[in-house]
Amino acid sequence: MKPLHPLRGLVAATHTPFRTDGSLNLDVIERQAAHLLNDGVKTVFINGTTAECTSLSCQERQALARRWCEVARGTELKVSIHVGSNCLPDSRAMAAQAEELDAISISAFAPSYFKPRDLDMLIGWCAEIAAAAPETPFYFYDIPVFTHVSLSMPDFLERAPSRLPTLVGLKFSNPDLMAFQLCLAAGGGRFNLAFGCDEWLLSTLVLGGTGGVGSTYNFAAPIYHRMIKAYEAGNLAEARAEQLRSAQLVRLLARYGFMGAAKATMGLLGVDVGAPRPPHSSLTADQIRQLKGELETLGFFDWIR
Amino acid sequence: MKPLHPLRGLVAATHTPFRTDGSLNLDVIERQAAHLLNDGVKTVFINGTTAECTSLSCQERQALARRWCEVARGTELKVSIHVGSNCLPDSRAMAAQAEELDAISISAFAPSYFKPRDLDMLIGWCAEIAAAAPETPFYFYDIPVFTHVSLSMPDFLERAPSRLPTLVGLKFSNPDLMAFQLCLAAGGGRFNLAFGCDEWLLSTLVLGGTGGVGSTYNFAAPIYHRMIKAYEAGNLAEARAEQLRSAQLVRLLARYGFMGAAKATMGLLGVDVGAPRPPHSSLTADQIRQLKGELETLGFFDWIR
Amino acid sequence: MKPLHPLRGLVAATHTPFRTDGSLNLDVIERQAAHLLNDGVKTVFINGTTAECTSLSCQERQALARRWCEVARGTELKVSIHVGSNCLPDSRAMAAQAEELDAISISAFAPSYFKPRDLDMLIGWCAEIAAAAPETPFYFYDIPVFTHVSLSMPDFLERAPSRLPTLVGLKFSNPDLMAFQLCLAAGGGRFNLAFGCDEWLLSTLVLGGTGGVGSTYNFAAPIYHRMIKAYEAGNLAEARAEQLRSAQLVRLLARYGFMGAAKATMGLLGVDVGAPRPPHSSLTADQIRQLKGELETLGFFDWIR
Amino acid sequence: MKPLHPLRGLVAATHTPFRTDGSLNLDVIERQAAHLLNDGVKTVFINGTTAECTSLSCQERQALARRWCEVARGTELKVSIHVGSNCLPDSRAMAAQAEELDAISISAFAPSYFKPRDLDMLIGWCAEIAAAAPETPFYFYDIPVFTHVSLSMPDFLERAPSRLPTLVGLKFSNPDLMAFQLCLAAGGGRFNLAFGCDEWLLSTLVLGGTGGVGSTYNFAAPIYHRMIKAYEAGNLAEARAEQLRSAQLVRLLARYGFMGAAKATMGLLGVDVGAPRPPHSSLTADQIRQLKGELETLGFFDWIR
After folding, report:
1. What distance in Å separates the CA atoms of residue B177 and residue C196, rounded to the nearest whole number?
2. CA D74 from centre of chain
3. Distances from the Cα of C100 to the Cαs of A108, C103, C165, C169, in angstroms?
4. How far apart are CA B108 and CA C19, in angstroms?
5. pLDDT per position as a tens digit, B120-178
6. ipTM computed for the complex
7. Looking at beta carbons, which residues of chain C come within 8 Å of B243?
């Protein structure tokens, strides 16, 4: 039986590995999985924003899903698959595949070229997707800064269950922590919220949050493991110090263009996921050398030992 | 040889026909083509915003392109294909297919989930797509209200040609008519601008515009033909009266949800393109009856005789 | 009796003259008025966006209003006063003063820190202001790019008259020309629309527009007079050429920071209105010299002879 | 000597009391002060967003400042004055008055009709205001959702001190908690951050935050006092439960229109601050009755005992 709350603790939103010619490099996935397991990360969220999902074809996303599930089989790693897109038949096909692959959950964001104008339309959209994977827990992925769709999540959780029987929670990539806490309390507390801003995950733990889905868990999980451990031990000063490291790291990467710098950092750790596809910019070899120096100065390589 | 300025006069941004189960209905394309030719519209812009391109899979877009080109063969109809998407390999594949199909031009909008932050990134994006159809005229499709990418088009036309040798102009779905006129003057006047707001096409004719790509040319071309004729004859009062009809028509359709109402109007004219895909909403049978009544009251069916 | 449509033809949205210490310099107003009359501009719109109204205190705005009306007395110049602000009592005080000063009209934009969420709230806001000047024609000043208040103007004109008996029209600083034409047609055509984008005024003439309120009419009126004359004579190519000059001029000024460059241009014409207040940036002496050179190269000083 | 970090703990952003005719009702300020002191709130932030500062004239803001300082004299209450506006001379005059009145600090938000485009312009703007109160600690008030000015606060704190010698911190009404933590760490930790989202204050305590400025501290301080006490005692579950009450309260008020409902709530507590000025909407007597019932059902009146 699938876990009720599949997205707990640290969930890595994985990068999509590309060759230098821009094609998919499925061979790297084993390396990504091993790296994560070695860092104590036991769930992956694939084909999300960090995976450049909108820059991938539907076929590529399905190939990634298949390969991740193959690699995970027989290990501790669990696979959650993002199936959101602007094209409903594509999303339904990916949802159906996720169910076949026995993914622990699926999720989908709002379409963002044509946009649902109200909750009714958004719930209808999600219901069509979720119905293609009737045995798989469904998360709505709220990320208004990318989709420009900004609707009330507490209201969503009140109204959606009757039309979305597989709904188990939200991937919450939204800075509104009042909504976050109200969502945690909604439905008698039965929903699972996976927070999407690694840089202030600690702020959600204190509200009752139970984990996050994010990109920095790919390369900086030790920082967050220590943070969570300190938090759970009641050592808030130490937890805060670890969160500050995360913030400093993200700020540094953002100066280089976050996606390109994050993928380059993976390479520096021996997991060569390549450069991102356009319209993301890539780092030059010189920039990667400079980034490495700045990461050393920051203390990053010590932090993640 | 391909025309230098392929998007002149009235170009219909065609609807994608769906069956009631939401699947593509390629059989309707002949009917759409015949209707347009009957109305004197001789160029189609397929797979654009009106075609719900972001709601289609890449395979569906390629099937539509193939069918439109088959239907057009041997007629006066010319086919321009929009190949923009968030996924560069998909866009390149569609561009390559367009060249094989001998489309008169291609176009692409900016990616809109991940966004190019400056002109350099945008031109790089376009160059990758255009290079996949090296013999086919390329238009950048500027539509900031949908893509949330808002960069200077006069600057684009100054900087892009060296990296975009096939660039011939813009599909300009942007209300900034100062930029429109500067673009017309750019490069010694060598660029072709197809305006995207049917509701005030007349305002661009007076600036030197030569036509438009739009959705209402599917069902209301006679209004615009009369408008252009009156304009060219120097009868501005009559031209203005026709433009007002267009504005009143669009306002009426917008009250029902523009896309659903526009497709329903096609149905009322005997061209059954079905309802739009989600997240667009569809009109109920009752709403279609009511819309028909309002169109009659407005005088629409007389206007398009 | 006041004219029914006070904002016809070219209306200059005047600059507020400041001394080098940033204080009001009322002495320059005579010079501004003489310059405009010499250029054939017979109506001024004072205390608007070009006047940096939000950077002025209410007292300063009232001093400007008083002085403009004194200067205009006995000349052909007519004065329209913008009284919009975020503070309703201030706006009402300015409206009452405008009536005392016998201004030909008042106008007000929407409050923009706290924003009216719907037309009902916006109409209520306008009604409170207009009621303080019950004998003075009122214009709503729609400028969504600054106020971030974007509501339907055709609907406004349908619903407002019963609560806004002095409403005569709109200062329309909004690029949506479909709304513009529908507003011209609203109420049987009884409303006066003054267009706010000088850079494409021609595009509104062809829709039935009768003039504009703008900043470039302060220093480039001859261009627009020729444009309107050509348009009225049916010489559209010549009208278009003049409009292009306007666009090229605005583009050049915008590169220096439009407000600072426009005020510097006034200085180059012998009307020393000083620099703008922060947060607008000012041009250095070097920049003004460079701007002068670029204006000469463009042909500006010949255009306005 | 003034405290280094004047905005610590709970700081009430006070409401401006109006009579039914919309005029200032300075008589209520004693009542407001007594209510706050009774609730253990010892610092007020006057003339801010909650005070409807943009709906007030400069003279009204100065009258409020004078009265609050008179009322506070001889009590434990300390007064911090917001002097931000779109008009620099007004802001400078209010800053100078604040210094004369011996306010513990001043603050100013960014101008929001004309907007500073970069940090340099914003710092210049703040410097002009702060210079008018050279002995008074200065806070920049970052509230991008209202001003539409969104610049990096960690960068602001790095660059501003050389030009803003009186800068002591930020009123941080911005949901970006990564920026919040980086700002706390900036300058060796010497800056004071007052968080502006009462609804998730707890999330900032865990990051090292030391308090907040907000509107709900006017009527719900006991909830937050218990929350902070529980937090400091390491009882996070209890702290979280109190924060949830705050979130539920804010959600309820927001359904009625937050500002009007918050002022009505003050009235229900015997502090009649009247209704807000337009464009805020007011509650009808019926709505106030209904609100009272909903507050009772929620448990609000018990929570604040």
Report:
1. 13
2. 22
3. 62, 8, 19, 21
4. 51
5. 999 999 999 999 999 999 999 999 999 999 999 999 999 999 999 999 999 999 999 99
6. 0.97
7. 181, 207
Kindly report the nearest CA distance between residue C154 and chain B, in angstroms.
10
DSSP calls for C191-205: -EEEE--GGGTHHHH
Nearest neighbour of B278 by CB, restricted to A22, A88, A146: A88
Does residue D281 lie in a domain region?
Answer: no
Residue D221 falls inside a structural domain? yes
Cβ atoms of D132 and D171 closer than 8 Å: no
Instruction: Output the CA–CA distances (angstroms, integers) from residue C156 to A250, B174, C169, D31, D216, in the order listed.
Output: 47, 24, 10, 42, 35
A285 found inside a domain: no
**Neighbour tally for D20: CB within 10 Å:** 9
Q: Is the distance from CB of D12 to CB of D45 less than 8 angstroms? A: yes
Residues A38, A34: Cα–Cα separation, whole Å: 6
Bridge partners, C109 (sequence order)? C141
The span from the CA of B6 to the CA of D159, in Å, is 53
What is the value of pTM for the model shown? 0.97
Which chains border A (3 or more CB–CB pairs < 8 Å)?
B, D
Does residue D231 have an active-site annotation?
no
For chains B and C, what is the number of CB pairs under 8 angstroms? 83
User: Does residue A284 form part of some domain?
Assistant: no
In three-state form (DSSP H/G/I as H, E/B as E, the rest C), the secondary structure along D190-249 is CCEEEECCHHHCHHHHCCCCCEEEECHHHCCHHHHHHHHHHHHCCCHHHHHHHHHHHHHH
Q: Give the active site residue among C141, C217, C224, C231.
A: C141
B218-250: per-residue pLDDT in tens? 999 999 999 999 999 999 999 999 999 999 999
Beta bridge partners of B108: B140
Distance CA A117, CA A115 (A): 6
Pairing of strands B9-13, C138-142: unpaired
Q: What domain range includes position D205?
A: 9-236
Burial class (CB in 10 A: 0-12, 13-18, 19+), A74: exposed
8 A C-beta contact, residue B6 and residue B105: yes
Q: Count of domains in chain B?
A: 1
- Shortest Cα distance from C39 to chain D (angstroms)? 29
Which residues of C fall below an 8 Å CB-CB distance to B?
Answer: 154, 175-178, 180-182, 185, 197, 199-200, 202-208, 234, 236, 239-240, 243-244, 247-248, 250-251
Contact indicator for B172, B197 with CB cutoff of 8 Å: no
Which CATH number goes with the domain that contains C48? 3.20.20.70
